[in-house]
Amino acid sequence: MKKRKVIDDGPSLFPEWNEETEAEPGPAAEEVQTKSYDHTALFERLAQSAFRSKFKLSAKDKAYIQGKGMATIRSHAADFVAKRLAPAVIPNDGKQTPMRGHPVFLAQHATGCCCRGCFAKWHHIPAGRVPTAEEQQYAVSVLMEWITRQV
Ligand SMILES: [Zn+2]
Fold this sequence. Notes:
There is one protein chain. The chain has eight helices and no strands. It starts with 26 loop residues before the first helix and ends with a helix. The chain has helices at residues 27-30, 40-47, 50-53, 59-68, 70-85, 103-111, 116-123, 133-150. Zinc ion binds next to helix 7.
């Protein structure tokens, strides 16, 4: 299997994401898929941000999503949220999410779920503590809503 090259413009705390290191979703990620949210107001706010609204899925991203299926993409999103966004202390916060390499990374930038600074600003979930399981589920639902609107 070909490795996906992930381009990052800064030193990263986290290992680069690739197919081989793709983790299985944890139990927390699996038990929190049922609640539904209304993200209408959020997406109206995001549409007014020139920075957030410039992110678009490429044809390659869309083909990747189609190949994997939404359930798998959701499990990737839950994994990235748990490992990259949820830690209470992230030394390189603001730099931990690459600008490409996985459609969920794009979704994170597009929706203000890319780092704890943006997560606090856009979603009012404060930095400095681990988000609750419900808050992590909320983040995943935002990411999946963005992806669903893009494909
Ligand atoms: Zn950010």
